[in-house]
Specification:
Mean pLDDT: 80
Largest sheet: 10 strands, mixed
Radius of gyration: 30 Å
Structural class: alpha+beta
Number of helices: 13
Number of domains: 2
Length: 387
């Protein structure tokens, strides 16, 4: 009998123990891969959403926190605290192109969706939107909507369709061409209509600003602050802050998953230690047939490594499946709602796949070192006389 056949036979002789030990390492690696792949998806989506804003500067109320910066990228609701007068003063600064946005939420078919109030002509020019179906707004007061490409597909909306917002029926006038950003998942309505429906007065949530000369960005930031009492942040500063938050959360989740892997490692130790005691007679027979301590040590270490390889492979597949399957349902907060807009919901990176399998194998091998050492240290007399 070859060494590989002996190892496989020893592992599978107790099928119940084999399955439960394998499940432990599988669940640990699956948790690790899930958080790792979704974390990669979050970072990718954050970069994409930041680029799709098309803004060099974001103007927010004084004291806005990092969570609100995340909300700008995700389309979550922000307080409407910037007045039309402040908007006009910013738009009057030479060298700037500023557009205001009022963020709200509504529901279509009992499912939540972002709704943005916009100055229609300004926003179309700012983002270079194109219409896929129907028509664009013709005025600032018409109670109609233009819907993002993905939102129209999700809710089966066409030009002429209608939905209700706060008791008022709005007709879909047009559908935007796909942009690849958060706009695809958003409903757009003229600013005055949204302000009336949500009773925000003449206020907006934030402003997106393009500057004519990027070399003068810091000067423009100071000029805006001197003109109005509002906060200003560059797109690079916002991206850095949001990535920092997501990175911290991601590391925390991976540490939690690492604890699961560690628990699985102790399960392997327990399984291998039990096997050592149960197979003392077998070990004695092998020694009597001339097997050296190194051979006994190798047999037990290979058995442990086998758990790691199989558990790692199954864990990777389970983890990737969970991360893809869970993505459409993770939309309850600003940080995780990035995943829904990311397409697959997971970043399937070969480095993650092979790295996780290698990590699982190494953990299992390390876990098997002590049991293998104990098995190899048994004296032939003690081992063969064990009943």
């Amino acid at each position: 009998m070859t060494l590989s056949k002996l190892v496989f036979k020893n592992i599978t002789r107790r099928r119940g123990r084999f399955v439960f030990t394998l499940l432990g390492i599988t669940i640990g690696i699956a948790s690790f891969v899930t958080f790792l792949s979704m974390g990669g998806s979050l970072k990718s989506e954050i970069n994409r959403e930041s680029a799709s804003l098309g803004a060099n500067l974001i103007v927010t109320p004084i004291g806005s926190c990092a969570y609100e910066q995340v909300s700008i990228l995700t389309g979550e609701v922000l307080p409407a605290n910037i007045t039309n007068d402040q908007v006009a003063k910013i738009q009057a600064i030479k060298g700037l192109n500023a557009v205001a946005v009022l963020t709200e939420k509504t529901a279509i078919a009992n499912k939540p969706i972002s709704l943005n109030g916009i100055n229609t002509a300004q926003m179309k020019a700012f983002k270079s939107w194109e219409i896929e179906k129907g028509d664009y707004f013709t005025g600032e007061e018409e109670a109609v909507a233009v819907v993002g490409f993905a939102a129209a597909d999700q809710f089966k909306l066409q030009p002429g369709s209608s939905f209700v917002v706060r008791g008022e029926k709005l007709q879909v006038k047009g559908i935007l061409k796909e942009t690849g950003g958060r706009d695809d998942l958003t409903v757009f309505v003229p600013m005055p209509v949204v302000q009336r429906l949500f009773k925000t007065g003449e206020k907006v949530s934030y402003l997106s600003v393009k500057v004519d000369n990027l070399a003068l960005t810091e000067g423009y930031i100071q000029k805006i602050k001197d003109t109005v009492n509002l906060g200003v942040i560059s797109d690079k500063q916002m991206l850095k802050g949001v990535l920092s938050i997501v990175g911290t959360v991601n590391i925390t989740l991976q540490m939690i998953a690492a604890v699961s892997v560690l628990a699985a490692a102790f399960g392997i130790i327990n399984t291998m230690m039990t096997a050592t005691y149960e197979r003392k007679r077998e070990i004695g027979i092998l020694q009597a047939l001339g097997a050296k301590q190194r051979t006994i040590f190798t047999i037990f270490l290979l058995e442990s490594g086998f758990y790691g390889i199989i558990g790692g492979i199954t864990g990777v597949f389970v983890g990737l499946f969970v991360s893809v399957a869970a993505a459409p349902y993770i939309t309850q907060n600003a940080a995780t709602s990035f995943v829904k807009g990311s397409g697959s919901g997971a970043l399937i990176d070969p480095t993650t796949v092979f790295g996780s399998i290698l990590f699982s194998t190494l953990v299992a091998i390390v876990a098997g070192v002590y049991p293998a050492w104990r098995a190899a240290r048994l004296s032939p007399v003690e081992a063969i006389s064990y009943e």
